[in-house]
Predict the structure.
Amino acid sequence: MRFHKSLTERISGMMNASLLGLLALLMIFPFYYIFAVSFTSYEEYVASELILWPKRWVLDAYTYIFNAKEFIRSLGVTIFITVVGCLANLLFTATMAYAMTRNIWGQRTFLLLVVFTFVFHAGMIPTYLIVKATGLIDSYWSLILPNLINPFNLIVFRQFFLNIPSELNEAAVIDGANDLQVFTKVIIPLSKPAFAAFGLFYAVLQWNTYFTAILYLNDPAKFTIQVILRQIVILNDAANTLTSAARDAAIAESMPPVETIGMAAILIATLPILLVYPFLQKHFAKGVMVGSVKG
Amino acid sequence: MKKIATLCLMISMAGSLAACTANHSPSVENTSTAPADTTEDATSKKFSITSIGGTWSPLPSADGEGLKAINEKFNIDYKPQFVPYGEYSSKLPVVMAAGDLPDMIGWEMVDANFMKWVKQGAFMPLDDYIDEFPTLKAVPKSVWDAVTVDGKIYAIPHYSPAKYAKKAVLRKDWLDNLGLKMPTNYEELKQVAIAFTKDDPDQNGKDDTYGFGLSQDIVYGASLGAAWDTGWYHKNEQGQLIPGTISEGFKEQTQFLADLYKEGAIHKDWAVSNVIDIRKDFYAGKYGIWYEQVTGLDEGMFNALLEHSPEAKIEVIPAFKQADGQQGFLESSGYYTVTMLNAKMKNEPDKVKRILGFLDYFRTFIPFDERNPQNPDFDWIWGGVNRGYKMVNNTVVPEPFPASDVRPTRYSQIANWAPNDEANEPWKSLTNPLAKSYTQATVELLKTTKFYINPVNRVSSEVLMTKGTELNEITREWQTKMIVGEEPITSWDKMVEEFMNKGGIEVIDDVNRLLQETGTTGEWK
């Protein structure tokens, strides 16, 4: 039997829809603007106040970017560190978090050490010294290893594991599984939402690698997409606002990339990571724990 | 399946980790320890030279042909490292602290960090070498003063025109449309700005123009002469020089801007408007008065302006006559970026000379008319005609990034030291007729204009360097409030009081002490 929605319900539904629609529009508009400007010619960009639909669609900005081998290479570098870094992050965070749920010797001390890094950071220079001493300067691993485990993610991961009924573990042990098998056969399959969520967090973090790349890498060929992107965008700023001297220095060496190129670069550098979201969406909502324990 | 994947991942990680460590070359980190070899001929010995510096341009690749050409020409193994300027100020202190300092170190300006490193003995004094290199000898004393600490020169300043900082420009065609003449004082300027706002200067029948372009943080303000600028020009009752931002001249300028704001000649949203947007709007024909320079113009903007206003004309407003009878602009520091040499090279004079010779070569000025394939030095520096650059209508057009790495200049990133500002002839490289005529006329105007050498640029006051930014923020905030009418101009003394209490007194005392010690005064030239 169907009930008719009351008037107030309908009104509140409409208000919700329009409010959320407006919010969504607010979020989408900057992306759309970036998209539109990236296809606009520079002359049109300068002459118009706000570009919503280019009068003439041009591909100049994209031609410039895809001709610059640095841009494509840095995209490759970023994809590499995102994939490898994210997998490594998950592997080490999950295994350590799992160990932290077991009743083993020194567990509490290690947990305390993890929490300790929440509050106190070594700072930029000591970390640099460690990276240098371990021979990681100018290596991609300097971008991955120092941030292998995020303490906050570890704690949440541990909490997630603790919520898995211990009866499942016991059942597996009775069936003859060892610790590693319990982890891979029972815990991981039950923790897909956690892996999806933290995998995404880590992936976004790795994708945005910027400052550590500047700090630890010396060879420009190894720079990540964010460094190159920022170069292009900063160069625009330099071309527009800096003192004449800085501007001279900026343009003396090459043609100044204009705003439209900056927009195209932003789009290219954002799209790949944006595309990851829809694929992980379903895992966030799914409650895999339902029905796992009968009795 | 999962197990296999994990195993593969671990193996590949371990493998690439090992590969990366194996490739790690120790020579990058420390090359300056090679003992001075006095038996070998100074010119035939190959030196390994490392450098670090900031850059605004796309980063050059580590194996460009331009780099190979430099190595061959100077018989060196040059390993430059460039860091985007946005992050360079964070990276260099870390590299310094880790003891990885290369042979040559670039920095954007003389600041508190520079002073700290000098005091720590990181850089070597260069006084003994200067006379040997023509482009170093050509640096005027006022610029050397800026990099001198306790009587010793610790850095090589690189050229930047002292006269060509941004100047107030106006739309001459609007002025003619309204039958007005070029303003010669603030009152006349105010009338012009108001007329530009209210009298339809572009004659399109719409009320769509503003007289004066002002942006967030009062980036350019409205200084039409040294007395109204930020330089240390005025004196207080004790006879000490004071910064322009708290002077009577600046008060007059602030009053002027407040009046314009009241009249609606400044956009009501100026205090939250980005300088880029205002600039864009000026070239879209919305503002009558704005700021522009003569070197490094963006011709795209001029093209856009001419497209919708073919009659447009832009002229610099000449400096106003001051109450003390002087008339002229504030000169800028005359340099941009500095290069220091690692103090470890103190006992390697041959290597130091090789480095300075390398810098000297790239600093050597080539007049505009000789910038062509017939000049062998120019052709080499720019990577060879049709490789690093093209000649189009007798003008050099650099091959764009990334083909640019065949140019040795990409790896030096050092400006020519021009014998004087006029020698740059900036209009010659321009193609837009408006940009060309504006630039040429401005260079002519500034050639005969007097300039005040800002004495504060010639001393290195650590107190000023540490407190300057904060103090500027205080005055800027007060002045923003005064312009929009939130605070009356009569609050000026309160602003000065806050400035003094928050460290202004110490700054003024320290700067004046240094000026006295070095015998530096503010002078016109």
